[in-house]
Amino acid sequence: ASSSSAAARLAAPRHVASFVGRRRQPLVVVARRSNVAMASAATAAPADVASFIETFNADYAKAHKAYEDNFWETKMNLEGNSVDALTSSFNALEAFLGDQAALDAVRGFLARDEREIPESSRVVLRQIEKTLKCYIVESADAKAVREKAVGLENKMNGARNKLKPTYVEANGETTEATFTVLRTKIRSAAEESVRKSCWEATRTTGPFLLANGFPEIIAERNRFARTLGYEDFYDMKVTQAEGFNKKRCFEMLDGLEAATAPLLKTALEKLEKEKGADALKPWNLSYALSGELSRDLDPYFPFENAPEVWGRSFAAMGIAYRGTKMRLDLCDRAGKYPNGFCHWPVAPHRGADGTWHSSEANFTSLATPDEVGSGNTALTTLMHEGGHAAHFANIEQGSPLFAQERAPFSVSLAETQSMFLDSLCGDAAWLGRYARDRSGAPVPWALLERSIKEKHPYEVFALRGMIAVPYFEKALYEMPEEDLTAENIARVADEIEHKIQGGLAARPLLSVPHITSDESSCYYHGYVFAEMAVHQTRAHFLKKYDGVIVDNPKIGPELLESYWTHGSGEPGFLKMVENLTGKPLSHDAWVASMAKDVPSLLADEKKEYDAAVAALPNTGAIDLGMRAVFVHGDEVIADSESAGGYVEATKEFKKWVNANWPKTAVAA
User: Fold this and answer.
1) Residue 47 binned pLDDT confidence (cut-offs 50, 70, 90)
2) What pLDDT shows up at residue 406?
3) pLDDT tier, 33 (very low <50, low <70, confident <90, very high otherwise)
């Protein structure tokens, strides 16, 4: 497999926003005392640290599961679901994590003589303290500033929700559309006038936000962060999430920016030469790079086969879920939450008595099985979200706090796991084995060759679009408060787009939703660092195992040992990458993959493809060490426990898909 993983990028859509889609920044509270069940553990402050930790873990697990169960029931629109119960359980979880008495008790234990508290207990206590500090602000002044910023943000977003953008059709008719539709039309509309009109509509977001309080929100966020001793809001967010400060963050980003600037120049020149200067216009760029591969590739990704393919691929790499119960609701339906996610009602941990408490996972997507591209998307989603689930299922620490996806879990660490595993969907070595039509025929090399030729020279565009977001936010939060005007912010956004992306962006920076929300602002760099780590990890494994990652049973155990078992505890993201790869995190492998010339890449990938197609098919039993329950709302489609195994459950799932979407049965 080539380290570029470029064989079929179109066959492997990346999930850049998956973790942010479910990650929730904590509500900031002040000095709560004796909340809910916490009173038994914290207020009493037992002398026995083991009893404290055991009680804390049990009480947290109960509050966490109650909320997640209600979350699933309401989002899946299950019978008897209750929004009131969801709200009540959410408030109970927030109250639990906002209990000052618990924080005081933890600090009391940590202050004791080292001989009184064993190091294993101190590790857990430090994690509890780190987590609670994300939810508690021990300053009334800071809380007041925070509440003002949140109030301004809610007001701005309320106004934004009423924004109704329009564009002009080719016939001159003005049409209202969502921003999702506008972005789709920028990529796909045949008429340039329509693409330009849609792009101009996305540009209206910036002026609207700037006229509705965004400059003041930036100032208040900075004021809050400085009250807590940080340089600015960006410095606070990166330090809390990743464990290193803004200076270190941008030292790494600056190196990546400098190394890829020449690649951007070459790509822009190539695109202009091949498709004309108009292709560089922001409303034309995405369209110029779009191809017709999706429909041609579709037969090689049958939707109903996706769960089996995912299971075979993971099992062959030695990945197991250690007793997890996973609920999978994969198909769209009326009343279902319109966004995919993976949550963990039960976060695993190892009890003080040695008992292993395995995880539970809820995974949902929005597939329509007979639509073009549904199988491709489903499979890549399963590889991605299944990677998250494998990561969290294998965190083995002394508290479930190490294995819950909210703060202080590193976005970079979490996304590295999922993005590494979904990157396999772009390898010829993987596609030759697993991208097969319903008759078992492999995807033709000609399609993969075409994908490489069309996509590889321009991969740098996506990278530069990613790093533009943190550079813009850095500039925003470093502006003196008196300079935070609508005019200045709009000017800086355009300047960053020109500097980083070579011109005005197809996706204007002020239209990126992450920057306006407190919970998702100032951590887009996490996806950049995850992509760095993915390429560095791939390069390490390819060198160590003579080019073999796909179906290599040694990969899973290595990921478990170096990346998974620690969770959000020590040694942290950067050290984990260094421990596995033997090198500090750098951009070298990522840049090298993009700089590789197309003929060399084609030669390497063709060799891997031929070997994959010639290999014996992976048709044995699938042992993922988990119970898989396929559901559709309240309907249970298949349960691996009662069906007699995972493969048998996937067969029942296939029958159900064929029965409910007859086109898939006809195609079979």
Assistant:
1) low
2) 85
3) very low
Average model confidence (pLDDT) across the chain: 90
The one-letter amino acid at 147: E
CA angle 249, 592, 12 (to 5 degrees): 85
> In the structure, what pLDDT confidence band is assigned to residue 177 with cuts at 50, 70 and 90?
confident
Which residue, chain included where needed, has tokens 């109960």?
A: 62
Question: What would the mean pLDDT of 317-345 be, rounded to a whole number?
Answer: 92
Q: How far is CA 485 from CA 42, 212, 219, 664, in A?
A: 47, 12, 11, 55
Determine the angle formed by the axes of helices 525-544 and 233-242, rounding to 10 degrees: 30
Specify the DSSP element, H or E, that contains 328.
strand 324-331
Q: Would you call 167 helix, strand, or coil by DSSP?
A: strand
Q: Cα separation of 91 and 11, whole Å? A: 41
What amino acid is encoded at 145 in this protein? V
With CA atoms as reference, report the closest residue to 416 among 327, 526, 280: 526
CA distances from 21 to 340, 416, 453 (A): 8, 16, 32
Q: Is 280 exposed, middle or buried (0-12, 13-18, 19+ CB in 10 A)?
A: middle
The residues facing 298 across adjacent strands are: none
* Structure confidence by residue, pLDDT tens digits, 10-28: 333 344 444 434 444 444 4
User: Could you tell me if 512 and 506 are in contact, meaning their C-beta atoms sit under 8 angstroms apart?
Assistant: no
Question: Amino acid letter at 298?
Answer: D
User: How far is residue 209's CA from residue 165's CA, in Å, rounded to a whole number?
Assistant: 13
Tokens of 330: 């994969």
CA distance 42 to 494: 52
Q: Which of 345, 352, 253, 286 is nearest to 51 (CA)?
A: 352
Q: What are the residues whose beta carbons fall under 8 Å from the beta carbon of 635, sequence distance 6 or more?
A: none
Say how many C-beta atoms besides its own lie within 10 A of residue 108's C-beta. Answer: 15
Q: How large a percentage of the chain has pLDDT more than 70?
A: 93
The C-alpha atoms of residue 308 and residue 628 are separated, in whole angstroms, by 11
Residue 216 corresponds to which tokens in the numbers above? 């003041």
Task: Read off the tokens for 71.
Answer: 């979350």
Please give the pLDDT value at position 598. Answer: 97
